[in-house]
Amino acid sequence: MTRTRSLASGLLTLSAAAALALVSAGGASAAAAPSDGKATPSIASVAVDASGAADYWTPERMQAAVPGDTLAGKALERGNRSNPLLVEKGKATTTKGTKGKPRIAQSESPVSHIGKVFFTMGTTNYVCSGNAVTSGNHSTVATAGHCVNESGAYATNFVFVPAYDNGAAPYGKWTAKALYAPTEWVSNGDMTYDTGFAVVNPDSKGELLTDVVGGSGTAFNQAYGLTYKAYGYPQASPFDGTSLWSCTGKATKDTNNPQFGTQGIPCDMTGGSSGGPWFIQTDSTTGSDGLQNSINSYGYNGSAVMYGPYWGATIQKAFNLAAAS
Q1: H/E element holding 229?
Q2: What are the boundaries of the signal sequence (predicted)?
Q3: Which 8-state DSSP code applies to residue 137?
Q4: Which of 29, 42, 180, 224 has its CA 20 to 30 A from that of 168?
Q5: CA distance 288 to 42
Q6: Domain annotation covers residue 205
Q7: Do the Cβ atoms of 292 and 131 come closer than 8 Å?
Q8: End-to-end distance of the chain based on CA atoms, in angstroms?
Q9: What is the CATH number of the domain that holds 262?
């Protein structure tokens, strides 16, 4: 779906030397990197009523859920800051190679801390992807901002299903008790900040999420141009949302909409993959064991590139507030 909105007059200002900030089990180091220019970032949040959410998501509702990427398109219209080429990745992009077949994305075995996110926005059921991250509360999930809030309205019936595979939910459905996102996303649909965090309830045994499934370390204020491995559960054709896929590549800045400060990697995953994690410091054998440093956010019509937001000071504050709740 193409967009006809004009470019905004203001551009996102990126500082050239922000301090490195990492939250991980093993720690890491990197050169000084840009920040997002927010001296006093503002974060919005809401407490969630989780009653009935797990039971709501029957296999039939899960299968019929609409890829949440369509909500990113609505945010773009509301924000009115995008190049007309910008679209949500709700449909497959097969400009080269065998028609109808992914040419970049690779099939993956389930990963215990990566899963599908199901939620309701208004009267429509949606599906995204997400990842459990290491946090003080052992209960935090990272996903896309458009999978948490759209036009100021928060998701309901929000559940995280780690290691989802062909209908199986080996670790159950984890219901949200609170949702967090940058105010710039909630108020303006600014793609610069398209990241959200959910804090989930303990399971029926009283156990906490990352104590059960593990979790990824996180990294903020990193250099541009790193190599990423991104994961997600694409559902729009030619995928069917039943299994995990990945893309790997070196990130380059979005030159169509430089005001977003985002980066893209070669990837032809489709709708449903949004919110899936981007990892740095990985190799071919430990791709899901790196540090999470972005999420699948949006793509362009006719281009097999997936873009993700820069995780700077504002997204870091959203994470810190969620992780400490």
Answers
A1: strand 227-232
A2: 1-30
A3: T
A4: 180
A5: 30
A6: yes
A7: yes
A8: 38
A9: 2.40.10.10
Q: How many domains does the chain have?
A: 1
Residue 20 lies in a domain: no
Cβ-based neighbour number of residue 14 at 10 Å: 17
Note down pLDDT in tens along the chain; length 325 residues: 323 222 222 222 222 222 222 233 333 333 334 556 565 789 999 999 999 999 999 999 999 999 998 887 776 666 545 454 443 343 333 233 334 678 899 999 999 999 999 999 999 999 999 999 999 999 999 999 999 999 889 999 999 999 999 999 999 999 999 999 999 999 989 999 999 999 999 999 999 999 999 999 999 999 999 999 999 999 988 999 999 999 999 999 999 999 999 999 999 999 999 999 999 987 655 567 899 999 999 998 888 999 999 999 999 999 999 999 9
Q: Locate 172 and state its tokens.
A: 């159950």
Instruction: Round to whole Å and give the CA distance between 141 and 195.
Output: 11
Q: Cα–Cα distance between 12 and 8 in angstroms, integer? A: 10
Q: Which candidate, 193, 164, 191, 162, places its Cα nearest to that of 180? A: 193
- Residue 223: both structure tokens together: 């250099």
